[in-house]
Each structure stands twice: as C-alpha cells, then as structure tokens.
Amino acid sequence: MDLLNAVIALANFVIIPAIAYGSQLALGALGVTLIYGILRFSNFAHGDTMAFGAMITILITWWLQAAGVTLGPLPTALLALPFGILGCIALLVITDRAVYRFYRVQKAKPVILVIVSMGVMFIMNGIVRFVIGPDDQRFADGERFIISAGTFREMTGLAEPLAIRTSQGITLVTAIIVVVVLFWFLNRTRTGKSMRAYSDNEDLALLSGINPERVVLYTWMIVAALATIAGVLYGLDKSFKPFTYFQLLLPIFAAAIVGGLGNPVGAIAGGFVIAFSEVTITYAWKKVLTYALPESMAPEGLVQLLSTDYKFAVSFVILLIVLLFKPTGLFKGKAV
Amino acid sequence: MTDSVKFTLYAAGIALLIIATGMMQSWNTALIIVNMGLVSAIMALGVNLQWGFAGLFNVGVMGFVALGGLATVLIAMPPVTDAWAAGGLRIILSLVLGAFTIAGAILLYRYLPKGRARTLAMIAFLIVGFFVYRAAFDPAKIAIEGVNPASTGYLGGLGLPVLVAWPVGGLLAAGAAWIIGKTALGLRSDYLAIATLGIAEIVIAVLKNEDWLARGVKNVIGLPRPVPFEVDLQNDPAFVDRVTGMGFDVVTASSIYVKLGYSLLFTAVLIIVLVMAQLALKSPWGRMMRAIRDNETAAEAMGKDVTARHLQIFVLGSAICGIAGAMMTTLDGQLTPGSYQPLRFTFLIWVMVIVGGSGNNFGAVLGGFLIWFLWVQVEPIGIWLMSVVTSGMADGSWLKEHLLENAAHMRLFTMGLILLLVLRFSPRGLMPEK
C-alpha cells in the first residue's frame, strides 16, 4: 500500500506536471527548431511571439466571456485559440515582410539575423506590455479538475491524492494532436516536403524549382500556430505574465539544442528531457521517500536537490553537458 | 569628414541634449543621466570588444554586471563577525569541497580510459560529492542566515575601500566568462549566445537566493561611498560658506557636488578603458582579432589559435562589463538583485553598441550616452505624447486611461525600433569601423 502511495505521490507531483510542462516546452522548441532549420537563425523573439499569440487569445477569451459564450467544462480560451493563431500569423508575416526579408535577400550572416530578432523581441515585448500590461492575467475558466484530489481519494481509498487539472489534460491532448498534424504535414504533403528539402539543402531545393518565399511563408505560419498554442497552454496551466514568457526562452532553446537544432523529433525529446530534469531536481522528495523506504530509513530533510528558484540552472547544466559531449544534440541536428 | 570631427560633432550634439535636460528639467537629472551614461559607455566598450573586434555574441552582459555589483558588497561592506563565527569557515570549506568534486570529476574524465566505466565513475563521484557538499553547506548556511536576519544574516565583506571593488568586480566577471568560454567557444556562435543568456539568469538566481552571500532579495543597502555624503557636506561650515558665497542653494549644491565627484571618477575609468581599447585595436593583436573575425578559416590556416584568442577577448570584454557593474552598484549605494532585468542590462547595451557602430570604440561611447539618454527620456516623452493623443478623448474613458497608464512601456518599443532602423538603413552605426 505504501509503495502504491509513493507511486501516486510521484505521479501527482512529478510525472503529471512534467508531462504538461514538457509538452509546452516541446511545442515552443518545435517553433525554434523550424525557424533554425529553414531560416537558419536562432530566433530570440520566440518567447515574445508566444506571449503575443497568447495575448490575442486572452483578449478574445475575455470578449467571449463577456458575451456569455463558454465551452462548458472546457476553457473558453480553446474557442479563442484560432483567432489568436490568426493574429500571430498576421504579426509574423508582417514582421517577415518588413524586417527579415531584407536580410534574407542580402544573404546576411545568421548572427545578424539573431541581432535583428533581438530588435523584434524588444518591439513585441513593448507591444504586449503596452496592450495588456506587465502583470499577471487570469483567463482560465471551465472545470478546474479532470480528477480532483477528493474524488480520487473516494474512488481509491488511498492516503495520497492524485489531481489532474483540466489544463494538464488539455495540454497533453492538444500537443499530441499538433505534433501528429505537424509530422503528417512535413512528411506527407507537397509543401511539407519542399520545406524539408529546403532545410536539407537550400541550393538543391532552389534548383528543383521550390519557391523559397513560399517555404518561408509557410514556416512563419506554422511557427505562429505552434507559438500561440504553446503560449496559451502555458498560460492556462500556470499564468500569463509577459516577463515569464521571455524567460521561457532559455529552457526552450535548451530543449531545441539538446534535441539537436533543426530536428523536430529532437525538439520534442529535448522538451521532455528538460521538463523532467527540472521537475525531478527541484522537487522535494521527502514524501515519496517516506512512503517508499522502510520507516527506519525515512529522510529527515526535504530531500530537495536544488531549490525551485534554480530551475534555470537545471536546463542550463543539461545544455552545457550536451554542448560538451555531444554538440549536435541527442538526435543529430544540423549545427556544430 | 574625418573621424575626429565626426566624433566631436556627435559628442557636442549629445552634450547639447544633456544641457537642455539640465535647463528644462534640473541639473540633478542631467548629472544622473551623465553618470549612468558613463557607466553605460564602459559596458558598451566591453561588448564592443567582444562583438566589434571578435564577432562574439554575448547576451549575458547582465550576469557580468551583476557579478561586479556582488564584488562591491564582498569588498566594501564591513565583515559580520558573528556570522563568520557561526559558519564562515564551514561555508568556505563546503564551497572548496564542491569545487574539488567538480575538479575530481574532470580529472576522472581525463585520466580514465574511455568507456562505460569512466562515465559511471564520474557520475558516482559527482553524486557522492554533491551530497557531501550539501551536508557541509546546508547547516553552515542556516547558521549564517540565522544571525540577526533583519539587518545582516550574511557574511558581510572585507571592509576594504570601495574603489578596490571595481577591479575585483572585473576579476569575478572574468572568472565566470572563462568557464563559459571554455565550454561554448569553438562551437557555433548561437551556442555562445544561449550559454551566456543562461549564465546571466543563473548569476541573478544565485544573487537572489543565496542570502548568506549578499542577503538575496533583502538587498544590501548603505554601501560605503568613494565620495562624501550630502548630509556631511551640508553640515560642513567651510562647504556651506563656499557655495553660499557663490550664490547656490546648499542642498542642491551638495547633491550636485557629490554627483560631480562620481562623474570625475567614472570619466577617469572611461578614459583608461577607452585608451586601452584603442591601443588594443591598433596593435597587431587587434588586427589579428579582426582578421579572425572576418575569416576564421584563413586566420586558422595562418597558424592563429582561433578558440584561444576568442577566449582571451571574451574574458577581457566581460571583465570590463564587471568593472562597470561594480561602478554602477557603487553609484546606487545598494545591491538590489531584483532590479536586474535582461532587457535593460543586456539587450539595451547591445542597442548601444549597434547604434554607436560596432567595431569602433568611440562609437560605443557615443552609443552608450545617446541610448541611455533616450532610455531615460523616452518615458516622459511617451507620456507627454499619449496625453496629447488622448487630449481629445472624454475624461475617464477606458481607452484614455489605458493609454496613459501603459505609455511607459513604449520605451521598449522605441528601443527595438531604433535598433531595427539602424540595422536596416545604417548597419555600420553612427561611427563606422575604419
């Protein structure tokens, strides 16, 4: 019985939150890795793109809520999500036309594009703060739990509760759908194949008559969708605050690099590697160990390896280890 | 138009802006802008060394600046003897243990034959080392933080003059830069960017959470100053006589006197750094750096050790940022880890370097002053602009309030716009590299 309680506690505090967080990171890292693979630069504005998409979604959600439209047990934000994606696509396509295209035509060095993306980051950050303000925003509604702690206790009679929040369930389901659709698109459709061809070998792709502007346009549209979905899911699961999204840049990049920059499968794997390491290393293991170990060996302290404030340090150390021992990432990426 | 004429013209323009601020707002405000402008110029010189000379992309400026700030606390604050007695030696011992663990793991990696046994030995060593370290560290930390937590709760510093902290800040930053450079240099340029972004966040996290070191978010206030206090000046009859004789208000005069003192000190540092950077740029070493930047493969073929040179200049540039960080904390008189924001301390410095002209030291100095001036003044201008725009709207309307309330956030937008416009239409900046 005690062992079962240990497993439940582990699932409740580590596995479920890490799966949700990992899915959010994976979606973010997919966006970064696609831009890297096709446009060949590290996009520093990605965190703020996520914030922008999430912001549009939040505004529409508020409007829908005020109009009395809801999705019943599901959060209204899901209904607003397509509009958020459209808004984000508009922003990214305009940005590309106004800013990035110039440097693409010039064949500027990647690092120049990174600096340009820094400018874009400032602007997006400014817009988001200007429109919605720098504070925390709540926009989640509907049923809070799929299984609440109380129901679970009644159902099983175990001492340890297991709570699954709606946002966590939605995150996982949405992430699976998005990833399946994305991979179907990249592997089966003509446009997807031309995107992969362009990413593998630009010159060869151009020779075979692939229109680069079209590939770039589709990439931005996909990236906008991924960023908005990741941003909204993160906002539903935790909360929406512009600065947190900026800070997500580090774990997202770590995920993309750990998996291998430019490799979509790697981005997903990297997202989960980072999320699970962050959560396991910053979790206080006392409860699980007390259940799992015999009474004489029960720990006294919290058995927390690092305080939660150091979660960035975890993604950073993993990043360093990968850079030192396997610079191309777990799944062979493009970059060395 | 020669470079020196150009520089003089731009500098005169910025001086006019600052004088206008002095006339229209107050001389105090103008001097505050000048002082932070001097600090910003030094930071920009550091980044320019890395980016302009060597093409290294460092987005961890904030971390190095914060390390400089930490140095002022560690050097200038008086030691807290009770805390040292409670656990000072133990905590230092545990840190040494931690360092030994990492060094031991590196030695194992180097000297054991390659294979699974090596990996396992290394991991086991690290895990055991980590727990030993925590076992030594935790009680010492609790003991130190328990000593009068409301006013101290940390080890304090060495009680040395605060000016000593400036070079020490440079050393701390250089140490951190060496560790980062060792791992991330020699790989793609983007990787250095991510690695520096990470180290900056970690430095801030350490400053915020390690209360025994510098009181964390409880802040260290009342740092010693290299210049007299305003209150002392106001109570000094000789000073009062002199300024009233010249027809000034005593309170204003004392605060301006103090700020001028800082300005002189900072100008001295700026001139030293600028002269050194300029000498370096013109030396064979500087030419080699630019040769490496422009074509790494060719430079390597000529027998230059690209990674080692990169490491060298990366450490140097970060050290300059560290010095500037120590100066800034000295100017503030307090260390507030919560106030370090990457947009302000990393990316703004980048805007300064790009706008000034990457690769040109004088450009970096100009960019530092100009962008800092704009950063300070865009907020009131934005608020003024918004009040003009909204003047036609009905009072109390939702949109008007929102616009006025959020006008302050326009400064990020403006900085981004300036950066993009300069990159697009004048990518070489105000003072192009020769």
Task: Describe the 3D structure.
The complex is a heterodimer of chains A (336) and B (434). With 336 residues, chain A is mostly helical. Helix content of chain A is 73%, strand content 1%. Chain A has a single domain, classed as ABC transporter involved in vitamin B12 uptake, BtuC (Orthogonal Bundle). Chain A is built from 14 helices and two strands. A two-stranded antiparallel ribbon of chain A has the order 1-2. In chain A, helix 6 packs antiparallel against helix 9 (212-237). Chain A is globular, with a radius of gyration of 21 Å. The relative contact order of chain A is 0.18. The mean pLDDT of chain A is 90. Chain B folds into two domains: 3-79 and 156-425, ABC transporter involved in vitamin B12 uptake, BtuC; 80-155. Chain B is built from 18 helices and two strands. Chain B has helices at 3-24, 27-54, 61-76, 81-111, 116-145, 162-184, 189-209, 211-214, 230-234, 237-246, 250-282, 284-294, 296-301, 306-332, 342-356, 361-389, 398-406, 410-425; strands spanning 220-221, 334-335. Classes of the chains: A mainly alpha (336), B mainly alpha (434).
What would a concise description of this structure say?
The complex is a heterodimer of chains A (336) and B (434). Chain A is built from 14 helices and two strands, in the order ααααβαβααααααααα.
List keywords for this structure.
heterodimer; A: 336 residues; mainly alpha; ABC transporter involved in vitamin B12 uptake, BtuC; two-stranded antiparallel sheet; 14 helices; 2 strands; globular; B: 434 residues; 2 domains; 18 helices; 77% helix
Fold-level CATH name of chain A: ABC transporter involved in vitamin B12 uptake, BtuC
Query: How does the helix and strand content of chain A classify structurally?
Result: mainly alpha
Largest beta-sheet details of chain A = 2 strands, antiparallel
Q: What is the correct CATH architecture of the largest domain in chain B?
A: Orthogonal Bundle
Mean pLDDT of chain B: 91
- Name of the CATH class of chain A: Mainly Alpha
Strand content of chain A: under 5%
Count of helical regions of chain A: 14
Number of strands of chain B: 2
